[in-house]
Structures are given as structure tokens and as C-alpha cells.
Design brief:
Chain B: Its EC number is 2.7.13.3. The complex is a heterodimer of chains A (228) and B (528). With 228 residues, chain A is an alpha/beta fold. Chain A contains eight helices and twelve strands. Chain B folds into four domains: 123 residues, no CATH class; 136 residues, Beta-Lactamase (2-Layer Sandwich), CATH 3.30.450.40; 74 residues, Helix Hairpins (Orthogonal Bundle), CATH 1.10.287.130; 153 residues, Histidine kinase-like ATPase, C-terminal domain (Heat Shock Protein 90). Classes of the chains: A alpha/beta (228), B alpha+beta (528).
Chain lengths: 228, 528
């Protein structure tokens, strides 16, 4: 029996599409057409993950998420639209696990659901990680590319580790700055984040102008390639 | 000059003429007593006519009658025998007195009329000059606010009175006021809504609604300290001109009625000219937007229907004839559906982008951005279409961060690169150059595609414009218009150049300043 996924969306067509496709991928799907119904389903049906549309007619998506987070760590993937980057960042910072911009390709949503479920299960425990030709030894704090030692400064290492531990998941600028520097977000720190991401790409990517490991999510943050 | 005139006016009024006449006659009497006793009495009498004539021409009737009386008294007392007494031994001198009076009154009246004529003609000349000056200024102005300022300033200076002009502004009325203060120091012009002005709003509205002047000196609102003149052309009310009361007001509006009327006429014509120009401009604009709307409808209906036709056709084909379609055919149809849907998605994105730009809802979220990162995102987004093009990137290793809205600039790059792919052939090359010069980022995208016809380098950025040569390739003509809107919102510019032998060269120039200072802070805390 696959994981149980709650779809909260007011559009019948979208719910139907998600139900058919997710069931085909082995998930069990329950549906809710409003935010209020969704909250009830979260409590009654105990799903493993929720896909939450931000444009609900009855409740603000952020409000639904806030009420879920009051008592549950249920992974939540939000469905948003273009041109709402700042709203998306806010909802990610307040506890959503990932987002999809409508319209989206189904394969990508399924991949994000899998990543979110895996992170919820804390499956990542191995001390040595193999990411393509990059090897990261978390116990020894050593990173190698094609067998060659990659010299990383402590900040670069911490940044890479944060990204890798959340591989496949989006991390906002704010979340990364908080994890690595433990500081309040500011324009200056956000810029430093970009500088260090650039350093990491130069040291790890085959072609830093076309990164494949550390991907930029425009207006939102970064996502490390899902390597598992 | 003004001050001197005032002073001489004061000398001409009150007791001064009488004192001067008395003194003059005293001096004349003294002089005649010394030297003139040998004169005939008739000659002396003639000499006493001089002050009468003089005061008549100079000061008018009152002083001249006074001069006649004093002159007769002095003549009688000092020169007519018996000397030093008033006994009139010879009644003939009463005739002299009567002649004196007649001369005094006649001369004074004539002189007064003459002076009046001179004064009036001077005044008329000044008024004409003033009107001419104002009308000359009016023709040079084409902004209603500037014009209102010019009118109130000029009229206030002419009448030495506070002046207001009330003109429609949006749905309500706006008021421009110029106060007049003595002595001659300039006060600025105040602007406010009619309701907040110090005018009587009811009087203004009365004038506007009834099409009649009101205020001081009229039947309505006659207690107001100002006169409200209607500005009206051919049944269209243009506004209200208000001239306030000063000590000069009664003279001002009374005697110079024609000047006031001329100002009112001139103000009306000037305001009407600007308002009509504005209406004509709006009419032109709406004709333009009408043309755009037609273009939009044509373009959108075509661009929306084509992919929809693809989707509906493919889907119905698959539903109705599933059994005759081979798996390959079905896959082909599915790809058609996907491509059509993506095309519609692009169209909708561009349309929404255009709406946001045009409605002013576009807000820039500028941040310090890494241009290499932005380019990476764009290339990734376009990786499928770019597979069949050779892409070359030239970019210095160390570029300063760009202070831009990365999401929007990425959209610009996506649009331009999509065009480069769309209008070029498989296997051709696309060059991307990024560099920085004096705080300006220059991004150049070159392709080897069909290019643009000569002379259309500017037009391709117009909304819904499609070059003739590009018409067989589907598109809305929105992509570059959006690029231009976004780049200009950043204070930059975008232009296209023809490339020899073929292709197009798109150049984006973006100011990326404001980056240095901001990145300076926090460097210490954050570096390791």
C-alpha cells in the first residue's frame, strides 16, 4: 500500500488529474475541495502528505498551512502560480516543504512528493554520499570530485551539507542563510549566499554556467539535485 | 516708478494744492508790492490770473476757484484803492472777480478733461501691452497648470489684487491662487482642490452651474469680497476666474471693466485651447487603443485557437479512434497536445505580463543577482529547444552582481533566446555575450536566423507588431514588447540591429548600480 496523499484543491479537473496519476504511481489519494474540508481530512484520515492549492476559495492557503502546522509535521507541497514568488517564499519559510508552479509536469510533482516523503521519514543517514562523480563524507568533512579532494572553506562546506541533506527539496534564501550563518536574513547575507553558491558551482559543477547539481529556483531559492 | 507716481498723486490731493496756492499768491503779492506798484491795476489783475490758470490746469476746479478767490481778495486788499482795506470803491473790480471765476472753472474743466484723456490713453496703452504680453505667454504654453499659473500671476500683478482660477481637475475642481501683497514682494502661486481653497465654494458652483458671473458688484453673492467671472466658450463652461477685492478694486473693476473683460476672454480662449487639445489627444489615444484592441483580438483569437484546435483534434481522435491508432501515432498525438498546451501557456504568460506592465502593477523586486546564475536558469529552461543550436557564451569570470529583478530579467532573456531559436535554423549558432561597462551591464544575443527587414529595428518592440518576413512563424508580437517594458522599468534600454549576412543582434543595457555599497556591509561577519 502506497503513501496516503491528501489533495486540497477547489478545481475538480485538477483533483481528478492528480488522483488518476498519483494512483497510477501507487499512491492512495483522498480529496478535499475546500480548505475547511482539507483540515478535517488531515485530522481524520491522517494522510502521509498533503498537496495544497494556494488559491482556495474559502481559506487562504497560508492559513490552512498554519492550522496544519499547529499540531502536525505532515509534509505539505503547495501549488502556486507564476508571478507569486514572494508569496511562495513566505509560505515555504512558514513551513511548507516544497512547491509546484502551475502548470506543471506530473513527473516533477511525483518526484517532489517522493522527496518530501523520504525527508519526512528521515531516511538520509549514510555517512558517505555519492552524488554523480562527487563524493561527500559527512563524518570526515571531506568532499571529492572524480577522486580528487575538493578544498572547501568551512562556510562552503556547511552550505553544501545543508543543500545535500535536503537534496531534491527547495530551500529558500532565508532558510539557507539561517542554517549556515544562523543569522537574520538581509540583502547583504542573501548576496553572500549567491557568492558562495557561485564558489561551490565552480568547484563541483562540470560546467558552472549550466549547473546540474545546485539548481536555482528563480525568485525562491536553491534546490540540490535529487541523487537518491 | 510706481512709488513715485503714488507720491505725486498724494501731492495732488487734500490740502496740499490749497497751501501751495496760498503761498504762491502770497509770494506774487509780495513781489508786486515791491516792484509792481508802478504797474497799471489792469496789468496786476492779469498777473493774478496766473495762479488761477496754473492751479486749474494742475489741480482742477477746487484749488482754482480757491486761487481765484484768494487772488481777488489779495488784489482788492493790497492794490485796489483804498489800499489795505476791503472797501470796494470801484465796483468794476467785481467784474474782474467774475472773470477770474469763469477762467478758473473753464480752464480747470478743460484741463481736467485733457488730463483724463491722457491718463486713459496711457492706461489703455498699458492695458493693451499687458494683454498682449499675456496672450503672447499663453500661446507658448501647452500645459494647463502652467497656463493657470501665468493667468493668475498676470492678472494679480495688473490689478494688485488676489486672483484665483478654478478649473476642472479630474472629477472635481482645482484652484490656483496668487495672492497680491504690497509692497511688491513676490508671493508664490498656491494650488489646491476647490473645497480646500479660501474661495466661496457655493459662489463658484453657482457660476459654473448657472453660467453667470457672481460676487461683488453683481446680484448674486454680492457680499463676497471678490468677483467671480465665468469662463465659457460656446456653451461649454471652462472654469471660473476670481478677482479679489483690494482698495483698488472699485476702480479696478469699475473703470477698467474692458480690461477685466479682455482678461476673462483671453483666459477663456487659452483654457479652452488647452482643454480642446487634451480632448483631441485623448481621442487620438483612444483611436490608437482601438487599433491595438483589434490587433489584440485578431492575434489572440488566432494564437489561442490554433493550439486549441491541435489539442481538441488530437484528443477527440484518440478517444474516438483509439483502436485504429498505433502506439506511435498515439504518442505523436500526445506530443502535439503537449506542445499546443505549452504554446498556450506561453501566450497566457505573455498576455498577463503585458497586462501587468500596462496597468502599472509591475513592481520590481530588485536584488543583487549573479548573472551567471540567471543565465544558467534561462539555459536550463530552454534546454530542449536549444539542443539543435550551437550556443556560445562569452562572459568574464568576475562580474559584479547585478541589482535587478532576477525573475523579470530571466523572462527577458527567455523571450529573446526563444526568438533566437524560433527564427533561426537547426544547427545555426547563437552567441551570448555579457559584460559590464561603467555600472552598466551589456547583454548581447546574436543569432543567424532570418533577421529583420531594414527599418523595422524599432517596430519589432511594438505591441502585436510582427515583421512581414516573420508572419509565417506563429507568434503574438508580445514577447519583445514585454522585454522592452521590463528593461525600461529597470531604467535600461533594449534595441535590435541587423546582422550581416543574416540574423539579428539584440542588445540589452541595464544599469546595475547600487550594488557596491550594499555588498560592502556584512562582509566581515559573513566571510570565513
Amino acid at each position: 500500500m502506497g503513501a496516503k496523499i491528501l489533495v486540497i484543491d477547489d478545481e475538480l479537473q485538477i483533483r481528478k488529474l492528480l488522483k488518476v496519476t498519483l494512483q497510477a504511481h501507487g499512491f492512495t489519494v483522498i480529496e478535499a475541495g475546500t480548505g475547511a474540508d482539507g483540515l478535517v481530512s488531515v485530522a481524520m484520515e491522517r494522510p502521509d502528505l498533503a498537496v495544497l492549492d494556494l488559491g482556495l476559495p474559502d481559506l487562504d492557503g497560508a492559513e490552512v498551512l498554519r492550522q496544519i502546522r499547529e499540531w502536525s509535521q505532515l509534509p505539505v507541497i503547495v501549488l502556486t502560480v507564476r508571478d507569486k514568488e514572494s508569496e511562495t517564499v513566505t509560505i515555504l519559510d512558514s513551513g511548507a516543504d516544497d512547491y509546484m508552479t502551475k502548470p506543471f509536469a506530473m513527473g516533477e510533482l511525483v518526484a517532489r512528493i517522493r522527496v518530501a516523503l523520504r525527508h519526512a521519514a528521515h531516511a538520509l543517514t549514510e555517512p558517505v554520499l555519492q552524488i554523480g562523480d562527487v563524493q561527500m563524507d559527512l563524518a570526515r568533512r571531506v568532499v571529492e570530485k572524480q577522486g580528487q579532494l575538493v578544498r572547501l572553506t568551512p562556510i562552503e562546506y556547511d552550505l553544501l551539507k545543508t543543500l545535500v541533506l535536503h537534496a531534491g527539496r527547495v530551500l529558500t534564501h532565508h532558510q539557507l542563510v539561517k542554517e549556515v550563518w544562523g543569522e537574520q536574513n538581509s540583502e547583504a547575507t542573501a548576496h553572500y549566499l549567491r557568492v558562495y553558491i557561485g564558489h561551490l558551482r565552480k568547484k563541483l559543477e562540470d560546467d558552472p554556467t549550466r549547473p546540474t547539481l545546485i539548481l536555482t529556483e528563480p525568485g525562491i531559492g536553491y534546490r540540490f539535485k535529487d541523487f537518491q | 516708478m510706481e512709488v513715485r507716481r503714488k507720491k505725486s498723486e498724494r501731492l495732488n490731493q487734500g490740502v496740499w494744492p490749497y497751501l501751495l496756492v496760498t503761498v504762491a499768491i502770497g509770494l506774487l503779492t509780495l513781489a508786486l508790492l515791491k516792484v509792481g506798484l508802478s504797474f497799471q491795476l489792469a496789468n496786476i489783475a492779469l498777473l493774478f490770473l496766473l495762479p488761477v490758470l496754473f492751479s486749474a490746469t494742475r489741480w482742477g476746479v477746487g484749488p482754482s476757484i480757491y486761487a481765484a478767490a484768494v487772488g481777488v481778495v489779495a488784489f482788492d486788499y493790497f492794490f485796489v484803492p483804498p489800499i489795505f482795506s476791503f472797501s470796494v470803491s470801484d465796483l468794476r473790480y467785481l467784474i474782474s472777480f467774475a472773470v477770474f471765476l469763469v477762467v478758473a472753472i473753464l480752464t480747470a474743466t478743460l484741463a481736467f478733461r485733457l488730463r483724463q484723456q491722457v491718463y486713459e490713453s496711457q492706461q489703455r496703452e498699458a492695458d493693451t501691452a499687458s494683454l498682449y504680453q499675456l496672450s503672447k505667454r499663453m500661446t507658448a504654453l501647452d500645459d494647463l497648470d502652467d497656463m493657470a499659473t501665468a493667468i493668475v500671476s498676470h492678472v494679480a500683478d495688473t490689478f494688485h489684487a488676489p486672483v484665483w482660477i478654478v478649473l476642472p481637475k479630474g472629477d472635481a475642481y482645482g484652484c490656483v491662487k496668487k495672492d497680491f501683497m504690497e509692497p511688491l514682494h513676490d508671493v508664490g502661486v498656491e494650488r489646491c482642490a476647490l473645497a480646500e481653497s479660501d474661495l466661496c465654494v457655493d459662489a463658484c458652483l453657482y457660476v459654473l452651474q448657472n453660467g453667470k458671473s457672481a460676487g461683488l458688484g453683481t446680484e448674486n453673492f454680492s457680499r463676497e469680497a471678490a468677483r467671480y467671472f465665468l469662463l465659457k466658450t460656446e456653451e461649454v463652461v471652462r472654469g471660473v476666474l476670481v478677482i479679489g477685492a483690494t482698495s483698488d478694486l472699485h476702480e479696478g473693476i469699475g473703470v477698467r471693466q474692458h480690461l477685466v473683460e479682455a482678461f476673462v476672454g483671453l483666459a477663456t480662449v487659452s483654457v479652452a485651447r488647452i482643454q480642446l487639445e487634451r480632448e483631441a489627444r485623448i481621442a487620438r489615444l483612444s483611436a490608437e487603443s482601438e487599433r491595438l484592441r483589434t490587433a489584440l483580438l485578431d492575434s489572440i483569437s488566432h494564437e489561442l485557437r490554433t493550439p486549441l484546435a491541435g489539442i481538441i483534434g488530437s484528443v477527440t481522435g484518440m478517444i474516438e479512434h483509439a483502436e485504429v491508432l498505433s502506439p506511435e501515432d498515439q504518442r505523436d498525438l500526445l506530443f502535439t497536445i503537449r506542445d499546443s498546451a505549452m504554446r498556450m501557456n506561453r501566450l497566457v504568460t505573455n498576455l498577463l505580463g503585458m497586462v501587468r506592465l500596462e496597468s502599472g502593477m509591475l513592481t520590481l523586486r530588485r536584488r543583487l543577482c549573479d548573472v551567471a546564475d540567471m543565465l544558467g536558469v534561462v539555459l536550463r529552461q530552454l534546454q530542449d529547444p536549444l539542443l539543435r543550436r550551437k550556443v556560445q557564451i562569452q562572459m568574464p569570470a568576475e562580474l559584479p552582481p547585478f541589482y535587478v529583478d532576477d525573475v523579470l530579467i530571466e523572462q527577458v532573456l527567455v523571450n529573446i533566446l526563444s526568438n533566437a531559436v524560433k527564427y533561426s535554423f537547426d544547427g545555426s549558432q547563437i552567441d551570448i555575450q555579457v559584460r559590464e561597462q561603467d555600472g552598466v551591464a551589456v547583454i548581447i544575443v546574436e543569432d543567424e536566423g532570418i533577421g529583420i527587414p531594414e527599418g523595422e529595428e524599432e517596430k519589432i518592440f511594438d505591441k502585436f507588431y510582427r515583421a512581414e518576413s516573420a508572419k509565417r512563424i506563429p507568434g503574438t508580437g508580445l514577447g519583445l514588447a514585454i522585454c522592452k517594458g521590463i528593461v525600461e522599468a529597470h531604467g535600461g534600454q533594449i534595441f535590435a540591429r541587423r546582422k550581416v549576412p543574416t540574423g539579428i543582434r539584440m542588445v540589452i543595457q541595464l544599469p546595475i548600480a547600487e550594488s557596491q555599497e550594499e555588498s560592502g556591509d556584512g562582509r566581515k561577519n559573513l566571510s570565513d
